[in-house]
Design brief:
Structural class: alpha+beta
Distance between the termini: 39 Å
Helix content: 40-55%
Number of domains: 3
Radius of gyration: 34 Å
Strand content: 15-25%
Number of helices: 25
Number of strands: 27
C-alpha cells in the first residue's frame, strides 16, 4: 500500500510539472523565510542564557524620580559590588564590568586599538565563558594580567601560543597573557551593541590608574550578582532597595533592584520605573511573520491542490468504489503533501545556506545552521513534517469527501459559491501582504522623518579623535599645527563625541530653583574653547567658552535652549548654577541640537569648561580643501606629536548615521519579508488563475463566438481576484493601523499614520494581483474559440 501511494504521488508530481514546481517553489521559499526568521528569533531569545547558572545571574538596576517621572537604568556605583558581596549573604558573587579599557595594545611592531573591559577577578566564576588556555580562577588575580580572545590572540601573536606572552598597554605598562578566551557567541550582551570584547583587564589595574571611586552618586558601571541557590530575589530586592540611602545618610533617593540577566535583552525597556517588553515586541512580531509566511506558503498548496480537485475526482471515486475508506484516502493525500514538503525542505535548506551570509550582514549577526547537532536535524524534520501536514490537511479532507456516485456519473461539479474556502485563503494571503506593505512604508517614512530632522549643528567635515598617549600633554602644539597648516578651521577638547552621551548629572540649583528642579537631569558635556565654532551651531545669546582668553571660564557653562526653558531662566547670562561646592557661571546659550537619539526630544544640556574631563578632540576640517588632503595633513600632525599611537579618526556624520542602524535593520527585514510574501502569494495566484482559466475555457469560447472582445474576457477573469484583494484590503487596513500605531508609540519624535499610505497600498495590491492574473487571463481571452469548442 505504501509503495502504491509513493508511486501515485511521484506520478502526480511528474504529470503536472508546472504546478509541482509552483508548489515546491512556494513551499520552499516560505520554509526558507521561516527558517531564517526563526534562526534570528532563536538567537534573540537565547541572549545570555548559555551559562549553566543563568537562572541565578541578575543585573543590578538603579531607580529614581526625575522630571516628575520614575526612571530605571542599569548603571550602578562602583562600590556597589564589593558592598553586596561583603554585607549580603544572599550574594554568592558580585562582579563589575565597565568598558573604560580603551588602550593601545602593542606587541613588537603591531599596534592595535581594540575593545577591552575591566572586570572583577570573579568574572569567570559568574559567567561560564570557556577558556581555550589558562586557569579561570587565577587569570585575573594580578593587576598586570590580561585575558585575550582567540581572534585577538591570533592578531597579536599569530600561531604562537599566547599564554605567557607579554603586551604593552599605552606604551607604558607590561602585561602578561594568562588566558585565551574562546570567541564569545553573539547571543551575549558582551558581544553585541553593548560591548565588543577583545581583551579583559583586572579591576585592580583600574584602581591603580585612579579610575576607581567609592562615590554612591556616580552610577557608571554594570554590576552583576550571582544569587545563592536558595536565595529569594524578592527578599534580596527588599533588603537592597535603600542601600544607596543608607550609605549617603539619606542624601540620595536612588533605589536599587535586581533583574534576571536572561530577560534584560528582551525586557530591559524602562517604563515608569519598571522594566517591560522592549526588544521582545520586535521578536514576537517577526516570529508571527515567520508563522504567517509559512501559512501563506501552505495556503498556496491548499489552493492549487483544491483547484485541481476535478482532475482527481475520478481517482477518488474509483478508489472508494473498490473499497478505499476515507482514512486511507486522507493518508494518501497527506503523504503526497509530506513528500512535496520534504522536497521543498531540501530546497529551503539550500536557499538558506546560500543566502545566510547576506542575511547575517542584514541583521548584523553570525547565524549558522548547526549541521553537526542531532537536535537541529530532529527540529528540521519536525518542521518539514508539520509543514506537510498543515499544507495537506485541508486538501486531503476535501478530496476524500467526494461522492463516488456523482463523480462516476459525471454529475460532479464544484459549487461556484460566493464564499468558499479557497477564496477565504486568498483573502488571508493578501491581507497579510497588505499589512506588511503598510508596515514597510510607515517604517521607511519614520526613518526619513528622523533623518530629515533639523540637527542643530553641521556634521559635515567634522571628525573626532580619541585622546591617547601624548595628545593631551601636547594638545596646544597639536592645535596650533592643525590651524597653521590649513587643514582645520577649529579644534576643541570634549568629554565625549558630539553624537554620544558619556555623562549626565542632577542635583543642580540656581536662583529661583525648587526642590523639584533638584531632580532635573542635564546631559553633561565639556570644552576648552571654540565649541560653537567647531560644532558650527548657533549662539543664541552671550559668548562661547574660551579658557585661553578668559581664565575664569574654567567654571563657565553654556546652556542649550531646552535647559533654559526647564530652569525657568528669563535672563540666563551671569546666573550661577551650583552643585554642592561646585559653582558655574552661565556665559552663553546655544541653539538646541540633537545630542543622542534622533527620535527623542532634545534634553537639557550643560557644556562646561575644563573642570570636567576630556576624552576626544573635535576637529572642523577646512572645506576649501578636499577631505583626503585635510586628513593627510591632520595625520601628519598627530604622527609628529603622538608617534607611538596610530592615527585613528571618526567622521561625525558616519557616527550619527549609526543611530539609525537598528531601525533600518527592522525596515530592511520588513521589506525583505514583504517582497517574499508577495512573491509566494503571486505564485499561488498565478497557478490558481491558470486553473480557473482552464476550467472556464469553453465558457470563454462561447462568449467569444457571441461577440465578446478579448478585453472584456480578460476583465471577466480578473475581476473575481480583484474583488478578493479588495476584501483583503478592507480587513488588513485596521489591523495595519493598530500594529503600526503600537510600534510608533516607542518614538517620541514620530510621524502620523496618514490615509494616503493605505490608498497607495491598496493600489499596489490591486496592481500586483492584476499583473499576476492578467497573463493567464489574456492568454485565455486571445485563444481561438474553435479549439475550445471542437469537442462539443
Amino acid at each position: 500500500m505504501l509503495k502504491n501511494y509513493i508511486k501515485i504521488a511521484i506520478r502526480n508530481l511528474t504529470r503536472s510539472k508546472a504546478f509541482s514546481i509552483l508548489n515546491i517553489a512556494g513551499l520552499g521559499i516560505g520554509m526558507a523565510s521561516a527558517i531564517l526568521i526563526l534562526l534570528w528569533v532563536q538567537n534573540e531569545t537565547s541572549m545570555d542564557r548559555e551559562h549553566p547558572k543563568s537562572d541565578r545571574i541578575y543585573m543590578m538596576y538603579s531607580r529614581d524620580t526625575f522630571g516628575g517621572g520614575l526612571w530605571a537604568w542599569n548603571s550602578t556605583p562602583k562600590i556597589l559590588a564589593p558592598t553586596l558581596e561583603k554585607d549580603y549573604p544572599e550574594i554568592e558573587k558580585a562582579v563589575r564590568v565597565t568598558d573604560y579599557a580603551d588602550f593601545l595594545i602593542t606587541v613588537g611592531n603591531k599596534k592595535l586599538n581594540e575593545n577591552g573591559v575591566f572586570v572583577d577577578p570573579e568574572f569567570f566564576d559568574v559567567f561560564d565563558f570557556p577558556l581555550l588556555q589558562g586557569n579561570p580562577s587565577s587569570a585575573l588575580d594580578n593587576p598586570y594580567n590580561i585575558v585575550v580572545t582567540e581572534d585577538f590572540a591570533r592578531k597579536l601573536f599569530g600561531s604562537v601560543n599566547a599564554v605567557g606572552q607579554t603586551v604593552k598597554i599605552d606604551s607604558a605598562d607590561i602585561f602578561t597573557v594568562t588566558a585565551v578566551l574562546k570567541n564569545l557567541p553573539n547571543n551575549t550582551r558582551f558581544q553585541s551593541d553593548y560591548f565588543q570584547i577583545d581583551y579583559i583587564l583586572p579591576w585592580s589595574y583600574m584602581t591603580k590608574l585612579g579610575r576607581d571611586d567609592e562615590d554612591w552618586g556616580n552610577t557608571s558601571v554594570d554590576t552583576y550578582v550571582l544569587l545563592s541557590e536558595n536565595a529569594s530575589q524578592e527578599t534580596f530586592d527588599q533588603k537592597v532597595k535603600d542601600i544607596t540611602k543608607e550609605h549617603t545618610n539619606g542624601e540620595s533617593s536612588t533605589e536599587m533592584f535586581s533583574y534576571p540577566l536572561s530577560q534584560v535583552h528582551l525586557y530591559g525597556k524602562s517604563e515608569n520605573g519598571q522594566l517591560v517588553a522592549g526588544r521582545a515586541i520586535t521578536v514576537r512580531l517577526f516570529a508571527f511573520i515567520a508563522i504567517f509566511i509559512l501559512a501563506i506558503a501552505c495556503i498556496n498548496f491548499m489552493n492549487l491542490s483544491t483547484a485541481r480537485s476535478e482532475k482527481r475526482a475520478k481517482e477518488v471515486g474509483l478508489r472508494k468504489v473498490v473499497g478505499a475508506g476515507k482514512a486511507s484516502l486522507v493518508a494518501q493525500f497527506i503523504g503526497e503533501s509530506t513528500l512535496i514538503a520534504f522536497i521543498a525542505g531540501l530546497v529551503a535548506l539550500l536557499v538558506v545556506q546560500l543566502v545566510l551570509p547576506s542575511f547575517n550582514t542584514l541583521v548584523d549577526k553570525q547565524l549558522f545552521l548547526p549541521y553537526g547537532d542531532l537536535v537541529f536535524w530532529a527540529q528540521l524534520f519536525g518542521f518539514i513534517l508539520f509543514t506537510g501536514l498543515l499544507a495537506g490537511s485541508y486538501p486531503a479532507f476535501f478530496l476524500s469527501s467526494f461522492s463516488p456516485v456523482k463523480v462516476l456519473k459525471g454529475t460532479f461539479r464544484l459549487a461556484n459559491a460566493t464564499v468558499n474556502p479557497r477564496k477565504v485563503l486568498v483573502v488571508l494571503q493578501f491581507s497579510f501582504a497588505i499589512v506588511l506593505i503598510v508596515s514597510t512604508i510607515i517604517i521607511q517614512r519614520q526613518i526619513s522623518h528622523a533623518q530629515n530632522r533639523e540637527l542643530g549643528y553641521n556634521r559635515e567635515n567634522l571628525i573626532y579623535v580619541n585622546i591617547q598617549g601624548d595628545i593631551d600633554k601636547r594638545y596646544e602644539s597639536i592645535k596650533q599645527s592643525l590651524l597653521g597648516n590649513g587643514s582645520s578651521l577649529a579644534v576643541t577638547k570634549s568629554m565625549s563625541p558630539i553624537t554620544e552621551q558619556y555623562s549626565n548629572n542632577w542635583g543642580y540649583s540656581w536662583p529661583g530653583s525648587t526642590l523639584e528642579d533638584y531632580k532635573l537631569t542635564f546631559i553633561k558635556f565639556s570644552t576648552d574653547a571654540d565649541f560653537v565654532k567647531v560644532i558650527d551651531t548657533e549662539l543664541v545669546t552671550g559668548r562661547d567658552i574660551d579658557i585661553h582668553q578668559f581664565p575664569s571660564d574654567s567654571t563657565a557653562v553654556l546652556l542649550n535652549e531646552t535647559a533654559v526653558k526647564k530652569m525657568g531662566l528669563d535672563d540666563p547670562l551671569g546666573q550661577v548654577v551650583s552643585r554642592g561646592d561646585e559653582k558655574y557661571t552661565v556665559v552663553g546659550v546655544i541653539k538646541d541640537f540633537i545630542f543622542e537619539s534622533p527620535y527623542d526630544p532634545v534634553k537639557p544640556l550643560m557644556v562646561m569648561g575644563p573642570t570636567s574631563w576630556f576624552s576626544v578632540l573635535h576637529i572642523r576640517l577646512n572645506p576649501e580643501q578636499t577631505v583626503s588632503q585635510s586628513l593627510a595633513s591632520v595625520q601628519g600632525v598627530f604622527e609628529q606629536y603622538n608617534p607611538n599611537f596610530p592615527f585613528e579618526y571618526h567622521f561625525v556624520d558616519e557616527a550619527y548615521a549609526k543611530k539609525f542602524d537598528d531601525t533600518k535593520r527592522t525596515a530592511r527585514l520588513s521589506m525583505l519579508f514583504t517582497v517574499l510574501t508577495i512573491v509566494i502569494s503571486c505564485l499561488g495566484l498565478f497557478g490558481l488563475s491558470a486553473y480557473m482559466a482552464a476550467n472556464r475555457i469553453k465558457e470563454i469560447g462561447v462568449r467569444k463566438v457571441l461577440g465578446a472582445s478579448a478585453a472584456s474576457v480578460s476583465i471577466l477573469l480578473s475581476k473575481d481576484f480583484l474583488k478578493l484583494v479588495g476584501i483583503a484590503f478592507i480587513i488588513a487596513t485596521p489591523i495595519a493601523w493598530y500594529i503600526m500605531g503600537k510600534w510608533l508609540q516607542d518614538y517620541q519624535y514620530k510621524i502620523g499614520i496618514e490615509w494616503w499610505v493605505f490608498v497607495a497600498t491598496g493600489a499596489i495590491s490591486m496592481l500586483i494581483a492584476l499583473v499576476t492574473v492578467s497573463s493567464q487571463a489574456i492568454k485565455a481571452a486571445v485563444r481561438n474559440p474553435v479549439d475550445s469548442l471542437r469537442s462539443e
